[in-house]
Amino acid sequence: MRASLIQIGVDPDEPVESRRERAATFVRDTHRQTGADLVVLPELWTVGAFAYREFAPQAEALDGPTVTAMSAAARDAGVWLHAGSIVERAPAAEGQPTTDDGATLFNTSLVFDPSGALVRTYRKIHRFGFDKGEAVLMGAGTEVVTAALPETTIGLATCYDLRFPELFRLLVDAGAQLLVIPAGWPERRREHWTLLARARAVENQAYVLACGSAGTNGGVPQAGHSIVVDPWGEVLAEADATETVLTVDLDLSRVARTRADFPALRDRVLGAR
Question: Could you give the CA distance from residue 135 to residue 226 in angstroms, rounded to a whole number?
Fold first, then answer.
C-alpha cells in the first residue's frame, strides 16, 4: 500500500472556502503524482485546531461543504481518503457542551472510500484544553472506530488521543494494523509528537501514520513533522514544518511478521482479551 500524508498549511488569513478547494486539489493531484492508495489530511484543517473562536461559526453537519468536497475528491482520485477532521455540528447531546443555538460540536474524523462514500466517522474521545478551548467547547466521542480497507484495517484516533495508550490497545483488539492520527500538534511540544508516535507503533506492533498541519492558527505555531513509523518503531519518513506531501510505501505483511517474531501482544496479562 502507498500512503500520502498531506501536511496542509492552516493560515487564518485564507478563507475556509479557499482552503477547502486547495485540499480537494491536493487530494486529486497527490493521487495523480504518487499513485497513493490512501491519502490523509490533518485535524481541523478547515479552521485550525487552536482557532477556538471559529469552531461554532465554521461548524457543519455531515452533509456540509467539507464532506461534499472531500467525497468528490476521493471519488475523482479513486482513493481511500482519511479527510482529517472537521468541527461537526450535531443535535444537542445529553451531558455534552452546547452552543448558544442548542447544538453540540464534535471533532469528527471522516473516512471516504474510492467511490466517495463516507464509510466511517470518529468523534475524538480525548478533548484537549484542560478546562478551556476544545475541552469545554466540544463534546467527547464514546466509540472506538476502525475501518476495513481491502488491504488492512485502520484504527482512528485524533491528536491528543495519542497520549492515551489504552485507546490504541482497544483499536488493536478491534483488528487495527495501521493507526491513522490526524493532528494539529503545537510546535512547542514537537518532541512529544514524534516520541509518542513511535511509542504507539512499538507497543502495538502496528504502522502509525500521524499527519500534522503546518502554519499558525489561534496564535499557536504548528509542529508539522508528519511521520510514518513501522511496526518495529523505525521512522520511515518524516516531514519538516512546512506545507508538504509525505508519501511512503507500506509493506503490510510486516505487521503480522513483527507480531509473530516478537509476540509481545500475545503475552499481555492486564487488560488482555
Answer: 24
- Continuous segment of H or E residues that includes residue 10: strand 9-10
Q: Which sequence spans correspond to the domains of the chain?
A: 2-267
The listed CATH number (3.40.1190.10, 3.20.20.20, 3.60.110.10, 3.60.70.12) that belongs to domain 2-267 = 3.60.110.10
Q: Which helix (H) or strand (E) holds 195?
A: helix 190-204
pLDDT tens figures, 107-118: 999 999 999 999
Phi, psi at 91, each rounded to 5°: -55, 150
| Residue among 246, 236, 226 at smallest CA distance from 4 | 246
- Would you please indicate which residues are annotated as catalytic (active-site) residues? 43, 124, 159
Cβ-contact 231, 199 below 8 angstroms: no
Nearest CA-CA partner of 256 in 162, 196, 175 = 175
Residue range 178-219, pLDDT digits in tens: 999 999 999 999 999 999 999 999 999 999 999 999 999 999
Is the distance from CB of 9 to CB of 214 less than 8 angstroms?
yes
Is pTM beyond 0.85? Reply is yes
Q: What pLDDT, in 10s, does the model give residues 139-177?
A: 999 999 999 999 999 999 999 999 999 999 999 999 999
